[in-house]
Design goal:
thiamine-phosphate kinase activity; single chain; 60s Ribosomal Protein L30, Chain: A; alpha+beta; binds adenosine-5'-diphosphate; 4-stranded mixed sheet; binds magnesium ion; globular; thiamine biosynthesis; Phosphoribosyl-aminoimidazole Synthetase, Chain A, domain 2
Length: about 325
Amino acid sequence: MGEFELIRRFFQPLAGRSASSSLILGPGDDCAIQRVPDGRDLVFSVDTLVEGVHFPKAYPSDKLAWRALAAAASDLAAMGAEPVCFTLALTLPCADESWLSAFSRGLFQAAEEFGLALAGGDTTRGPLVVTLQVHGVVPKGQGLHRNGAKNGDLVCVSGCLGDAGAALEYLAEPDPTQDMQAVLQRYHQPLPRLALGQQLSGVASAAIDISDGLAADLEHILEASGVGASIRAEAIPLSPALVRLTGDQAVDYALRSGDDYELCVTLPPAGWQALPSDIRQQLSVIGSIEPEPGLRIQGWQGTADQHGFDHFRSMS
Ligand code: ADP
Ligand code: MG
């Protein structure tokens, strides 16, 4: 199977599947064309996943496709952006039809779920690497940034944290229990908070998606904003399955391990009060912003500087 047949069979059918009409030209030409409506800013981000680094060797390709697009879409969620389209740069060791058809199926399902149309891509031979660029739009000037947190703002997170990190322990489990299956589902099929991100645009003072662990990602907000924060360990939302599986360690997973793709946002107390209750129900208040730099975690024994995933930390 040649490169062009591969593209025609497995990727062309995914084109133009988004509800959005602003993707004017999809795959098949030298470039794709996206129209940015008046009064909108274009928001875009690229993510690379390398086999053996970001996902395990021999990881099922339908799940890989979903996780890759979810991780990329989560960056749009963190900006409060409405998803529009994406490009896919795929490097493959060989053209394995069953691998490709499962990959294409997983990508198709995720693309439909997140409202992202495939706009184009690039296909090359080499070690397995998946690179996705996602495009979205925000109302002009309304994109959520990391640098807007202010003294007195509340720190909130969506959903439950730590499940995806704990799931790594059970990936090879031949007969997972129901609780293991629940956390594994969070690892295999993360759901980026796209609707919530858009609802918080214009309300949150700062936002980030939790891809490297709550402590590391919240610290990005604190550094960018030139502030500190105090959070309470007991306020960090944990799933019952995670607590049953890991007991006292559940909070460590939430603070230190990544891949949850929930949102961490800051907002002034008045903004919180004014939020509709259905949005507040998706968030937990875990602490507040303070002038003194650094992250303080009340009721937690670990040290705040041993967390998160950093490719180069050990090399410096
Ligand atoms: P060029 O040489 O002009 O860069 P390519 O041969 O790389 O073009 O790609 C031909 C067309 O196929 C382009 O429109 C490109 O966007 C599309 N394409 C290539 N690989 C993929 C892929 N994995 N998924 C979707 N579209 C792809
Ligand atoms: Mg090309």
